[in-house]
Protein: DUF2267 domain-containing protein
Amino acid sequence: MEHTFEINYDRLAKRDSGLILEIKRALVMPDSKKAGEIICRILHTIRRSLSYTESAEFISRLPEYLKVMYVTDWTPKEKKITIKHLDEFTEEVLALDHESGHRVFHKEVDALSAVITVLKILNRHVNLLNLPSFGYSFKRELSETMLEPAA
Structure:
């Protein structure tokens, strides 16, 4: 995956409405760059599962600085994916991580934990569960994880 520019995650975290820092704290991650890369992998997986119309709706809900993360490296012909289960979402995040050339996940369990943590926080702010592209099973699994205490 070719990057058009490098995002300064420290600067974004200082300027955003607190969402990046909230996610960084929930991930127990001292490094803003790594936390930002994790958020990007998850946002890009969401992006790949949405139509352009759904993406426009989703983008409108995101805080300004997460919008930057969402659209980074977006290509018009990006492969659309269907997400039916949480484990499929995690596999897609891991595939993006592998393609990036700079891996942030070394174990699937770490990726799953990060996916659940980030999706829980995003849902509180942008209501992920009402996105029609996510299948019923995925939404149910995500809802069930939201009933559990945050990581």
Q: What stands out?
A: The mean pLDDT is 85.
